[in-house]
Write a structure and sequence with these properties.
Number of domains: 1
Largest sheet: none
Low-confidence stretches: none
Distance between the termini: 41 Å
Order of helices and strands: HHHHHHH
Radius of gyration: 19 Å
CATH class: Mainly Alpha
Shape: elongated
Structural class: mainly alpha
Strand content: under 5%
Length: 224
């Protein structure tokens, strides 16, 4: 069917967009961890590309629907591709927010050696990359595994925030940097949430049902 090459083109573009979003996050957080601004220009460069791709992808998806008038199975995939495209652009926005806070954080003395922040970032980016891989392969088992990891990100965020509060209490001069670091963790948590959304969309594409966290818990209980 002629629509299949177009679907593959859209999927390849979404994969490329996801890789760029992940690279943005990596560079923005690395600037904080290394206390070095050299990583930041790449974030701005990639944001421009992602914004451009988001518009192009939306146009391509809508024109594909209009041109091929696809049957229900392919229409569901294309509608989900629109959601994925939107979510990837939002992830790029969160990466840009991290970068803007990083610019301010590294202007002041380093608050501490960051240990949990790189771990939180690694888990978050692992969720994003696996969500995209599950999309590429329509792998619902991997998608469900991505959803489960969201709790780990939430727990790490809580742990980082508790530690930062102690720094603020001990020395009020740390407050500005600590609050910016909390904002960074908020953005990472939102990226993890959006990666979870992507995984849920994969399950919908393959199985035709929209899965939410509580429904995943019910599934696991039924299997047990």
């Amino acid at each position: 069917m002629l629509i299949k090459p177009r679907l593959e083109e859209i999927r390849d573009r979404l994969m490329e967009m996801a890789d760029m979003a992940a690279e943005m996050v990596e560079n923005a957080v690395e600037a904080i961890v290394q206390h070095d601004p050299k990583y930041l220009p790449k974030v701005d460069e990639l944001e421009e590309k992602i914004d451009k791709m988001e518009v192009e992808n939306e146009s391509l998806i809508i024109s594909t629907i209009a041109r091929y008038q696809p049957e229900a199975k392919y229409l569901r995939i294309l509608v989900m591709d629109l959601f994925v495209n939107r979510d990837l652009e939002r992830i790029g926005d969160h990466a840009e927010n991290i970068k803007e806070n990083a610019e301010r954080i590294i202007q002041r003395p380093k608050l501490k050696e960051y240990v949990d922040l790189p771990i939180m970032t690694e888990i978050t980016l692992g969720m994003l990359k696996d969500a995209i891989r599950s999309l590429s392969e329509l792998d619902t088992e991997l998608a469900r595994d991505v959803i489960k990891r969201d709790d780990k990100v939430d727990a790490l965020q809580d742990q980082i925030i508790r530690e930062l509060y102690t720094y603020m209490v001990e020395d009020p001069s740390n407050i500005k940097v600590a609050l910016r670091l909390i904002t960074v963790t908020n953005n990472l948590e939102r990226i993890a949430d959006l990666s979870t959304n992507l995984a849920e969309e994969v399950i919908y594409m393959k199985e035709g049902k929209m899965l939410r966290h509580q429904e995943l818990d019910v599934e696991e209980g039924a299997e047990g």
